[in-house]
């Protein structure tokens, strides 16, 4: 209870001061602020000038775009289609080259292990044929015995 009563009797400046840091900004922080505020102001002014110039340039150029639109629109479409065609062609070319490269690497890897695979397959066929021959011979003997 005493703690709650103590908090209620604090002055408003004490509450505000409790949120502020105990010591002031360091020298490097002050130098950073002194350097960056003017730089930020100059950059903000430049951004405003560029925006103003862009709006004025657009206002001047809009009538020219309207007058020359029968020429500009087909030209822009033609250029856009040509660029799209070149980019698509390049993408397909890169895809084809990477596919061929992968296929060649795959064949090279398989070629190294191909003789081993053929030997293994030949042994399995010989074993299977030998087993079938023995089974057939056994059946023949069983049938021949009275």
UniProtKB/TrEMBL annotation:
Membrane-topology descriptor: Multi-pass membrane protein
Keywords: Lipid droplet, Membrane, Transmembrane, Transmembrane helix
Coiled-coil blocks: none
Record InterPro entries: Oleosin
GO CC, alphabetical: membrane; monolayer-surrounded lipid storage body
Record field: transmembrane: 30-51, 58-80, 86-107
Primary subcellular site in the record, as a coarse category: other
A single GO BP: response to freezing
Similarity-based family: Belongs to the oleosin family.
Reported function: May have a structural role to stabilize the lipid body during desiccation of the seed by preventing coalescence of the oil. Probably interacts with both lipid and phospholipid moieties of lipid bodies. May also provide recognition signals for specific lipase anchorage in lipolysis during seedling growth.
Protein name per its UniProtKB record: Oleosin
């Amino acid at each position: 209870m005493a703690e709650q009563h103590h908090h209620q009797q604090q002055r408003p400046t004490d509450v505000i001061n409790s949120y502020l840091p105990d010591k002031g900004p360091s020298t490097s922080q002050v130098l950073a602020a002194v350097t960056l505020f003017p730089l930020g102001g100059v950059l903000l002014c430049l951004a405003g000038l560029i925006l103003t110039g862009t709006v004025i340039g657009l206002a001047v150029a809009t009538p020219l775009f309207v007058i020359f639109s029968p020429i500009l629109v087909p030209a822009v479409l033609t250029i856009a289609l040509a660029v799209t065609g070149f980019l698509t062609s390049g993408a397909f070319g890169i895809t084809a080259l990477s596919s061929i490269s992968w296929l060649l690497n795959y064949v090279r890897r398989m070629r190294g292990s191909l003789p081993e695979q053929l030997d293994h397959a030949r042994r399995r066929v010989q074993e299977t044929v030998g087993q079938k021959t023995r089974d057939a011979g056994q059946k023949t003997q069983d049938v021949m015995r009275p």
